[in-house]
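Example (one chain per record):
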Amino acid sequence: MKRSTFTILSAVVLSLVASSVFAQRAIRQSETSSKPKSFFEAGFWDNWFVSATGGVNHYFGEDDNYNPDGFFGAITPNIKLSVGKWLRPSYGLRLQTEGMWLKGWNDGLNYEGVYTWNKLINDGTQGVDPVLNHKPPKDKDGKGYYQRMRYMDLHLDFMINLINLWKEYDINRPLDVYLYAGVGWGHMFRYKGIPTDNEIIGKLGTVLNIKLTDRLSGNIELQNSLVNEAFDGQIGGRGITNHNRSYEGYASLTAGFSYRLQNTFTKYDYVDPEVVKELNAKVNDALADNKRLQEKLDEFCPKDSCDKLRQQLQDALSKKCKDRLYVVIQYVIDKWNVRTSELYKLEEIVEFMKKHPEINISVTGYADVKTGNPAYNQKLSEKRANEVIRLLTTKFNVNKDRIKSKGLGDTVQPFKENERNRAVIAFDLDE
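Predicted structure:
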């Protein structure tokens, strides 16, 4: 063989090897996701929770600082019901309703000309409220009267998980702390001298969440509510500073339980689009060099004398530069159904199989080693693999004979992060 021909052939082989290296590197860069992803992903039905708590309330109105029964005499019961969703590990939304009773106190005086809708006169000439025809109970000295309120409110809160904001998300973390702020609507029912009223309410609070099981948590919540002063039926009064104020509020301390319907976030390694773009450009350049080198080969190696070598090069080119399949389908703990957010990955598998009808694929199920026991995890991994095959064959009409499947349970952990091993991996079989 001529030296020039040998040089050309060597360059072709080196170019093929370079193409393979760049192509495989590009595949590794995109193994965790076949399209750009944020660091965490969850489907619509993931991370919903419901909670119920009960505890105590205390109202802070115009004259309540002078309540003869003191602070603890104004304590009342409180019940809260909530439903919410964590949109990301560090933040979420919650809809909460609460209500029951509130207690207040009115000194019955009209200080500084401020109007009090149900004021009483010290000498007792006006002992019955003319508005609601109700005679409120006075204190033991007869200088004021007690307010008995029935209320409810509904508010939407924006929650921040402080620990997930500062540290990496961990589904097994035993303790979390949330802060939240919200706005909503409050309704005061007409009851024993208190008129009907509707007000906009602001909310601030914090929640201590203690994990009890995979889905059940205990929580302690401290909440403050800000509302217009008319909410308790009294406008004006001396208040704490002997001056009228426009806003007052009530605080609550409750404890209860929260149940997570499903709770998981799938972690993805971030892939810089510019890195992928650069690698793909290098692959394309390498393939273009292959084409130019083959054209040079035609000049130095006539077809009738280099058929065998030409076929070997063509086989190498076909093998090294063919498309590869590597798809990872993630699962919620103890589940084997494919979530809506993961269905597009099945479409990628189908597209690859249509493009390469001569290639078969492998579908392998896994389970994470930190959950369940080996026997249970083995069955779970098989269910996950079988469910993927069922969808491919029934929903996408893929020939079942082209799929090999198995479940490895927790005997193999392909990923360092425990949660990511709740997976099915599909790849092409390079026979």
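Caption: Residues 1-38, 112-126 have pLDDT under 50 and may be disordered.
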